[in-house]
Amino acid sequence: MNDINQRHRVRMERKKAVIDQKIAAAQKDIGIIIVNTGNGKGKSSSGFGMVVRAMGHGMKVAVIQFIKGAMSTGEEKFLRRFPDEVSFHAMGEGYTWETQDRERDISKAQQAWALAKTYLSDPSIGLVLFDELNIALKYRYLDLDTVIADLLDRPDMQHVVITGRGAPDELIAIADTVTEMAVVKHAFKAGIAAQAGTEW
Amino acid sequence: MNDINQRHRVRMERKKAVIDQKIAAAQKDIGIIIVNTGNGKGKSSSGFGMVVRAMGHGMKVAVIQFIKGAMSTGEEKFLRRFPDEVSFHAMGEGYTWETQDRERDISKAQQAWALAKTYLSDPSIGLVLFDELNIALKYRYLDLDTVIADLLDRPDMQHVVITGRGAPDELIAIADTVTEMAVVKHAFKAGIAAQAGTEW
User: According to the UniProt entry, where is the signal peptide (chains A, B) (predicted)?
Assistant: First the structure.
């Protein structure tokens, strides 16, 4: 075995020992709250990736889109093929700058949260995705204290994924895993259109 | 209409004008390269979200996992239900610190890239996901120049999603959209196990 391969083996043996120790220490099985925020891509698509991951494990899933809804998306078309496995609700009427009507947006968001609560009370649902909920919170369409209380009151083993820019600090405080998606580069700025399959 | 709602409308009208202008300027329809990197969560799951988004638009998809493979994941179980729509290949044998065998990892990665090239030559494939390719590049299991040349040589309308920590600068340079997933908080550090449906 040559030098580089031998050094690789030694380094990886050490790394494995450290990681195995961390895994042994992480023993709690419990539903977690995952928040995807930041200005970069991948917040919603990561949520949809977790939806199919959960479906692969036989979990029932619910999806509520708080802002999107006016336009049908690839993920919606796809997930509507599995009505017994996923409850899919596009409750918004587009982005807030499209509607320009705050009272209607508030009323839509509150209807969506009333529905969200029914899933947060149902232990048969393994994972819920609240897509763009952060936007509804940022614009104060929903009362943050109520949302947080309802999230904390859910079944022990239920996972929640929340997406959208500008996650409020109070939500980050109660979340288990929080990722900030940061823009390094964006095709849109280079004059490439939002396309089926990549953006919607 | 009260004050806050009126101000909201004015602000959103302005925002809509700016965004509509940007959309009008972004006219190119072309296959793009998307890179998800960084130490945070959501790199692979975002890739899988894009896979189902593309499937929702009727595209054919190919997935090659360069590192994962020893353990069946939720996304694999799920996507194997659609053999006519997705070609799924888990070509790795686990993480590099599990195998500790650099020569075998290199040989596996090179087999995986040979397969990747067949999809990068097939215009009927609308989107390819090369999961954890960045790891294979970082450990120099694959020649970066070859990989970049093959990526650039693909069909015009084909999208490519590449995930993994430590994306090389040369790859970022040729990519259209690059997101850095940054850790804000991670459940694992709080002693919560890697669980079905959220981590695998």
Answer: none
